[in-house]
Amino acid sequence: MGAQQRVFKQKIRSTQSLRKIFKAMELIAASRIQKAIARSQAASPYANALTRAVSAVASESNVDHVLTTESDSVKHAAVLVIGPDRGFAGAYSANLLREAEELIRLLRNEGKSVDLFTIGSKAKNYYTFRDRKIEKSWTGISENPLAEHAREIGEALLENFDPESADSGIDEIYIVFTRFVSSVTHDPEYRRLLPLEVVDAEEASTGGQAGESSDAPAFPLYEFEPSAEAVLDALLPRYIDSRILSALLSAAASEQASRQAAMKTATDNADDLIKTYTRLANTARQAEITQELTEIVGGADALAASAAGD
Amino acid sequence: MATLEVNVVAADREVWVGEAKRVIARTLDGEIGILPGHEPVLGVVADGEARILTPGEDTIRVKADGGFLSVENNRVIIAADQAELL
């Protein structure tokens, strides 16, 4: 076998083994999307119940709470970037980080200083490489976020939240994540988490169906047990945790969906490459055969000519 | 007789859904019993268990740690960070 043919055969073999890996990753991602969507939907009754309760308390009582009051002068903002731990997901993390950069630029232009919190090693590496200070980062939870993680993150974010203090406290908290719309559409977006704007149940739940109660905006006159302040005190941190959890779950579903799409493209490209190399290898083989035939015929002609000359 | 529609939800899943004749839960002030037709309530649930009495005379005991209870239009929602059936 000629050298050229050997080169092509080698390339075909290595592309085939890569293709196998891509295909396997695609299938794994596809099965995980379903799980991620199911978990996201399982969390939505809680999110809906909390949203409704928080809206009810906020709408009918004149309770002032530190988490809902807007600060007059916002100096410090915290940004939580929810990114992936692993690559191989196409433009997923690039799109997310671009969104985060946009938000940070926006905040800086308004004269606010930004504290960074990151989830996932991709976001962490991005900012560490650029020598930006990260207040706190979590890794290893992006693919399988649990309620405990959301609680831990919520606590860390709320720790320094203090709009009333003039200098050091954080006045606003933003969250950047990828919203899962469908398995082909996922939009990176940012939202302000605090001070609180209570959003509709439809928005709070990610991909889940909103409870039928949400289309009745008028709340009955609740009796608060023990008091409206105490209820709000207990509800708000949970509401924030639940918002973080739903963002985490939505990001996890988007990550798997992006990975599946990226791996599908990679598999298709590998197929194309294999086809191209097979064609080239065939041409090389045919050229070699033609060459050999020409040599044999030429050699025989030369022999015959020299025999006739004797 | 009207029944209560009860949902028990934890942060990451729905724990129990069904009908009930009566729900008893512990709030910060003490125990609260809810029968059909109860006025709307939003309460903080203290650690401990809630009891749900179903129309079939079964008692379902739910452990609900740190959460709240909402009652309106015969619909009871017990939402807790961690909730499990006992």
From TrEMBL, chain B:
Keywords per UniProt: ATP synthesis, CF(1), Ion transport, Membrane, Transport
Coiled coil: none
Subcellular localization(s) per the UniProt record: Cell membrane
Source organism superkingdom: Bacteria
Domain ATP synthase F1 complex delta/epsilon subunit N-terminal: 4-83
InterPro entries to which the protein is assigned, alphabetical: ATP_synth_F1_dsu/esu, ATP_synth_F1_dsu/esu_N, ATPsynth_dsu/esu_N
Family classification: Belongs to the ATPase epsilon chain family.
NCBIfam families xrefs: ATP_synt_epsi, PRK13442.1
Subunit description: F-type ATPases have 2 components, CF(1) - the catalytic core - and CF(0) - the membrane proton channel. CF(1) has five subunits: alpha(3), beta(3), gamma(1), delta(1), epsilon(1). CF(0) has three main subunits: a, b and c.
Protein name, UniProt field: ATP synthase F1 complex delta/epsilon subunit N-terminal domain-containing protein
Source organism: Brevibacterium sediminis
